Amino acid sequence: MRNYNFSPLFRQWIGFEKLASNIQEDHQGIHYPPYNIEKSDDNHYRITLSLAGFTQKELSIELEGFRLTIKGKPVLREKETHYLHQGLFYKEFSLSFTLAEHMTVEQANFNYGLLNIDLKRNIPESMQPRRVAISTTENHPALQNHTLNTE
After folding, report:
1. Strands 35-41 and 114-121: what pairing?
2. Cα 119 from Cα 124, distance rounded (Å)
3. Residue limits of the SHSP domain (predicted)?
């Protein structure tokens, strides 16, 4: 029996853990820049991008509807470098995430080459789960003596 891991298909859908039937649009296998998505509880998430070599001025974050887009456009270096080995990349990128309804960007900070974007789910009070009281017939005396007339 084979086990299939579908998590790569849904890792850019934040807040949609229970909605696995949706299909993510094709991003042509974007692997740059590397990133993590953390979930601290049902309402708090963090996206962390590793952006070695970038400065804050070379980065932009846009939120349009449910689409969060992070872009990086590095300033070209005057001197061309010849690498013996290149394991670090410093190139232009655009990375998009689809956020669930009621998700908001709380804050973003950039320190030590890591861009952290904190997200929070703000569910309106009218949509939050609530407890419904269960009554008995003792609380409704009019229903206690109610019988069906089968004649």
Report:
1. unpaired
2. 16
3. 26-137
Using CA of residue 8, residue 12, residue 15, residue 18, what is the dihedral sign? negative
Contact status, residue 71 vs residue 146, Cβ threshold 8 Å: no
Q: Kindly tell me if the per-residue pLDDT of 94 is higher than 80.
A: yes
Q: Which residue has the higher pLDDT, 15 or 122?
A: 122
If 0-12 CB within 10 Å is exposed, 13-18 middle and 19+ buried, where does residue 15 land?
buried
Whether the pTM exceeds 0.85: the reply is: no
Q: What is the DSSP pairing of strand 35-41 with strand 44-50?
A: antiparallel
